[in-house]
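In the previous chapter we treated chains in isolation. Here, by contrast, the input contains two separate entities that must be folded as one system, with a combined length of 222 residues.
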Amino acid sequence: MDAKISTQKSIGTKHSILDKTLEIIRGKWRLHIIYQIGTEVRRYGELRRMIPQVSEKVLIQELKSLMNLGVIEKKIYNEVPPRVEYALTSKGRQVLPILLKLTTVGEVFLK
Amino acid sequence: MDAKISTQKSIGTKHSILDKTLEIIRGKWRLHIIYQIGTEVRRYGELRRMIPQVSEKVLIQELKSLMNLGVIEKKIYNEVPPRVEYALTSKGRQVLPILLKLTTVGEVFLK
């Protein structure tokens, strides 16, 4: 493989890694949701209360996207009424420290 | 201040820090641009070549937004033809390591 092709391949790989990162954090709510679930397992109603600015429709849609991406998982307990809880997956827990560190960026630019 | 108000204030502050963070990294291109400028000062033409998927219109608009946010700065050299270079500001350089670490998130989820 000559150097030029190798460099192009390397730039391509970097782009797809970055694109995957952006998929996980994109939009106004995904990081908010990850932060709230990150510290402990959350019931749906708790998430509603903790992120009151988001509409019910968008919250449900973003929870679904984060599940499809493998960042969070839903556990349904066979109780009456049924209990539904959200938790980070093991990959989600693995990247949580990096995502938490991101708030430093906001802090620096709010100064 | 009672405990409830204090908690609500703390959640409010966290939200605005996170919102500022999201402003800086939002969209498909800002992180791409920051990464390319991060390693060294870049001329406009170089950025065009390094991120070929972005349209000229959007690249110019995103460079302007990043300048307004104080992440990058433009230097115009009085040469013929004029030389225009983009570099990170000192705040931009300060947060670059955190933003670079973000690619780990994509790596974990591409596995």
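Residues 31 and 103 of chain B are 10 Å apart (CA to CA). The first strand of chain B starts at residue 42 and ends at 43. Compare these points with the single-chain example from earlier in the chapter.
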